[in-house]
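Researcher: Here's a chain I'd like modeled. Treat it as a single chain, no partners, no ligands.
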Amino acid sequence: MLRYFLNKLALSILLLLGVLALVFLMLRVTGDPAALMMPREASPQEIEAFREKMGFNRPLGVQFVDFMSKAVVGNFGNSLHYNTPALPLVVQRLPATVELAAVGLLMALFIGVPLGLVGGFNPGSLIDSFGRLLGLLGQCIPNFWLALILILIFAVRYGWFPAFGRDEPKSVILPAFVLGLAVMSQILRMTRSTVLEVRSEDYIRTARSKGLNSRTIYFKHVLRNVSIPLVSLIGVQFCYMLSGSVYIETIFAWPGMGRLLQESIGWRDFPLVQALAVFTSVVVITLNLATDLAYALLDPRIRYGK
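Model: Modeled as a single isolated chain. Structure tokens:
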């Protein structure tokens, strides 16, 4: 297990270094960084002064070494818009994004897992048909369109939920539901298909032939094996929800990292964009590492390389 963990940790570190290099190159390949960061009405003299201030006139190799040495300690420079260090601004927005993603994931689990289990245990039933339809709709409905419809109905027309912001606890309900709908459909379909697959395995037939009751078979054998791919899917989808909530946070004016990314791009605040990209990558890589470890704990075949 220790060897497995060390291998995964080494791969995660290499991946993070690759992300840092990619973030550095993305700013340079899009053109002159100084011209991109400065306002359009800036004079050539102002651009040149800014280029010298930021060190963009130095050789590319020197810039890369300087960027990497600062990035590994979390120093991405000052935000051009806020004139404060960029990374603390990102960290301040993290709780809002985590709250949104966590509530959305819980909604997806509470709806998707039971419907998937019932559909897998009773294929062709009315609940199974409803679950399959819901899973299909969750995959097909654009989340930005659904967000606008929910705001129009439940916020504007009936006033049950706030339309924007994070001022009260129920403010998270609408954006979390929209963010979690597609995840719910994937969890539902994964759970159902895994239950159907596990039910046909030889060890399930053996358990039935021994006279074990259905409850014991389902809880001891079926659910345990269903949880293995489900954990992997949950980890991947939670990473997606953390890093892919830009549209949802923008529509609902949710003060998270996604909205900050959208704002920083509009402001041409590249130090803040870089801090957001790297910090989000660190969070996603860490969650993927935790998911791999949980997967190995649930499935010894992974742990021992079988």
